[in-house]
Specification:
Its EC number is 2.7.13.3. The chain is an alpha/beta fold and 396 residues long. The chain is built from 10 helices and 12 strands. Among the domains are: 3-112, Response regulator (Rossmann fold, 3-Layer(aba) Sandwich), CATH 3.40.50.2300; 245-391, Heat Shock Protein 90. Helices cover 54% and strands 17% of the residues. It is rod-shaped, with a radius of gyration of 45 Å.
Amino acid sequence: MSQQDKEPRGRVLIVDDEKVILDLTAIILKNRGYQVFTALSALEGLEVIEKERPELVLLDYMMPNMDGLTALKEIRRSYPDTYVIMFTGKGSEEIAVELMKAGASDYILKPFNNQDLVERIESVLKLRGIELQNRALLSERERLLAEIADWNRELERRVQEKSEALRRAQAEVVQSEKLASLGYLSAGMAHEIRNPLNSIALFVQLIKTGLDEHERLDYVEKILKEVDRIDNILAKLLDASKRPKFEISEVRVDRVLEHTLDAFTPQLRQKRIRAVTDFKSIPPAIKADPMEIEQIFTNLFLNSIYVMPEEGTLAVELEGDEQWITVRVSDTGPGIPPENLPNIFDPFFTTNSRGTGLGLSVVLRIVKTYKGKIEVEKSDSLGTTFLVRLPLAPPR
């Protein structure tokens, strides 16, 4: 195989305004297997670098128009992968030091020894190979570190998402267990207490028919009222524990909301509370028991009206998409204390001295019956927003 068929040892550009030196240096390097380009001026040399991108430039310091120092700085700025060896006149070591500081890889004094020239070129090209390899390794290291950082951020995000999903799932399991426990408790209480209550009511009615004294009649009336009150509490316990009789039909949630709000008109007027509705879209009807759907919002409206001072605002927002009906019920009350938020759906939990603590438990039971979701979306000193989501598809 001839020298011409071999892979060149490297591409070298020689820039010198002395043609004799240019041609001599080119012959030396070509004989050593280098691919050689030549230029008689710095400007011409920069054009060759732009086109050919040689690994090395042999650059003369003393040249007209643009001197070697200016050309060196431009090469290092625009073509950092191209290394430079400077040619300097004999006795110009101070200039050589300045050139090295400006970015030259080496310098050679004129006139030069041919073997020394070749050894210097080989040394600089070897150094260039090592530095470029190190630069590539550092770049790869930075890329890998950035990739690892991205992976860590993604992992942290996924762990946070899974942890939050697990927390919500655990909370739902706890709520379901509480509702199940309430079911056993309330069903047993209802069956055990209702029978004697019926007897008490019957005996009181008999006593009432045989008495004339106004005072004793008044006393009997109070007994009957207490019996009714206990019976109502038991009825609410049964509602919270199990699904009562129901009739499935086509239910338009927007109409249920309007009807339920109308039912609260007297209470709203009494406290001068403004009711605001925002039906962003009217979702299609769902298959449900209208009384159950109405009970959801009756309890939510009742809670909101109770906690609000006079001249508050009750806001109802409705929207739907292809999968869910979303209703937001907002008030301008004082908000739910953070320590109470985990317990608001618990049976018997209430901050109302006159309440039973079963309203939101009933709401939770109904919403879960329809495979829906309910949560406190926001609660602070400006008020509370409950978010209710009901699926458009019927529960299976």
